[in-house]
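Technical appendix A lists one of the benchmark inputs used to test multi-chain prediction within the project. The record comprises two sequence entries:
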Amino acid sequence: MFERFTDRSRTVVRHAVDEARAEGRRPVGTEHLLLGVLADGDNLAVRVLAQAGIRAEDLRAAVARHTAGGVDGLGEADAAALREIGIDLAAIVARIEETFGPDALREAVPPPRRRWGRRRLADGRFSPRAKKVLELSLREALRLRHRHIGTEHILLGLLHEGNGLAALVLTEAGADLDDLRRRVEAALRTAA
Amino acid sequence: MSQATDLAAAAGSTDPKVGLRAVLALRRLLERLEVVQVDNARRQGWSWQEIADALEVSRQAVHKKHAGRPAVPGSWEA
């Protein structure tokens, strides 16, 4: 399905795959696609986000916070999940750092599990939501009667999907997803 | 609802999504704590056998999992 993608969009997807790979054996998620769009630096999608008052650095930091690459090696989602079963992650981190020094827990990266079959499965694969986003970016391009799929269509796909980690960090950054969609479409009309 | 009841309810949550996510977070924490503690034991001169006994696993298991990492960052002698 990548034949209609522009060079920039391909770079975005490639970047997303690299981001996921850097995190370990995780499939490419919506957050990686968002990071890919942001990494491009100067595309319509990034400009629209900037106009809406959303800073790329904030989004990157939020993604890092939510994924396992967070401050102490465990993400905010992990802390919330542990809270659900009555475990105070902050207290554990504080105790460990008191004894073993700051960053002790963050630097304690567990050895990768040697499961080759699983590694192959996750490496370079897309999560169901990320797949959906790519499908939606194609659909958005068709709907707008564009013959190509640009980075802006990937952003539209991310906004349309609306449920992944990308949508979550955007919402947390104060974005209104529907408003952003309208902004992207308006920007496309002016550009056309 | 008191806090204790809240926690009890969550711990035994019937929603698999909540329960399984907690298990995942717990495993991530556990893996990191194991690294911290095994490294600490090695730095204090514990043998793999002693560490294995403490963790109630085989010496081979703990060695296979942790030997490929310097106990003291930056040194491979330890």
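Chain B has one domain: 3-66. The radius of gyration of chain B is 18 Å. Comparable benchmark entries are summarised in Table A2.
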